[in-house]
Amino acid sequence: MTTAVKAVTDGAIIAKRNLLKVKRSPEIIVMMLVSPFMFILLFAVLFGNIIEIPGGNYREYLLGGIFAQTIMFGATFTGLGVAEDVQKGIIDRFRSLPASRSALLVGRTTSDIVYNALSIAVMMVAGLVVGWRIRSSLLDVLAGVLLLLLFAYAFSWVMAYFGLLVPSVEVFNSVTAVIVFPLTFLSSAFVPTEPLPMVVRTFAEWNPISAIAQASRELFGNISAATPTPDAWPMREPITYSLLWIVIILLVFVPLAVRRFNQTANR
User: Fold this and answer.
1) How far apart are the first and last CA of the chain?
2) pLDDT given at position 213
3) Is the pLDDT of residue 7 over 60?
4) Which 3 state secondary structure label does DSSP give 217?
5) Residue 1's pLDDT is what?
6) Taken in order 109, 114, 116, 117, is the CA torsion positive or negative?
7) Can you give the residue ranges of every domain in the chain?
């Protein structure tokens, strides 16, 4: 059996283990699903009639940002699980088994696709409650969901790397807060970039979170024809820009995470 095939088959076993673990701790999945629902309701109620979107509707604009935010936080669940496995010595136990060294990471990142898919489904239901509507074809909707899951999967490798890098779960929570919150809020996830100061606006327009949020709006049909065309290329071509980031993140962080895992396992 080749190394790649063994990594996939062993990773599938680890993914099953992670899903069964959550099944025995349903409060984890409940928190993951309730959080995006609450964000949608709070932002829609608080800012739905205050923030104006040129040629559009804020509630429909908001959902793209909530999708982006939730998959970011969902990816941290990957790193949290990895950091917990390191702290509890689970990695040392896996080292004693005749399994692929990368199986733990493959299984963890793969199983978290299920959680992100559930989160997206919950967000769609919550969005429909507050007035969000899908205004595109079924093919575009499927492409939108797939793009979100691909981005979440890529970013989960970033979080897996940091989960291996830090000494404890508590440190991981602090590190990810420093990464996730600036990326999420210094973007077009919740407000348009046009009124922002120039430096912040430039950062927000080239922020991959802005791109994935804009791509979601585009694929779900939530960008009005009356909305002005953005000046920045990432905002004009958000799908292409998001795919570029997915490829870059995977090319950089999959090898980094696997190498870090091997170093951790060899201590």
Assistant:
1) 27
2) 94
3) no
4) helix
5) 47
6) positive
7) 3-265
CB-based contact 160:82 (threshold 8 Å)? yes
How many residues can be counted in the chain? 267
The tokens of 246 are what? 């997915």
Q: Where are the alpha helices (DSSP H) in 48-192?
A: 58-87, 90-95, 103-130, 138-165, 169-185
Q: What is the per-residue pLDDT for 5?
A: 53
> Is the distance from CB of 177 to CB of 210 less than 8 angstroms?
no
d(CA 70, CA 28): 15
- Range of 31-45, 94-108, 123-137, 200-214 with top mean pLDDT: 200-214
Tokens describing residue 1:
């059996």
How many helices (H) and strands (E) would you count in the chain? 11, 0
Whether the pLDDT of residue 267 is over 80: the answer is: no
Helix 103-130 and helix 58-87, axial crossing angle in degrees, nearest 10: 150
What DSSP string describes 21-44?
HHHH-HHHHHHHHHHHHHHHHHHH
Collapsing DSSP to helix, strand or coil, 123 comes out as helix
Separation of alpha carbons 210 and 67, rounded Å: 11
Q: What is the mean pLDDT of residues 223-229?
A: 78
Taking alpha carbons only, the member of 229, 233, 231, 183 closest to residue 203 is: 183
Q: Residue 16: is its pLDDT beyond 60?
A: no
Alpha carbons 39 and 26: distance in angstroms, whole number: 21
Tell me which residue of 53, 47, 63, 230 sits closest to 136, measured CA to CA.
63
Mean pLDDT of 145-168: 90
Question: How many angstroms separate the CA atoms of 71 and 112, rounded?
Answer: 10
Whole-prediction pTM value?
0.85
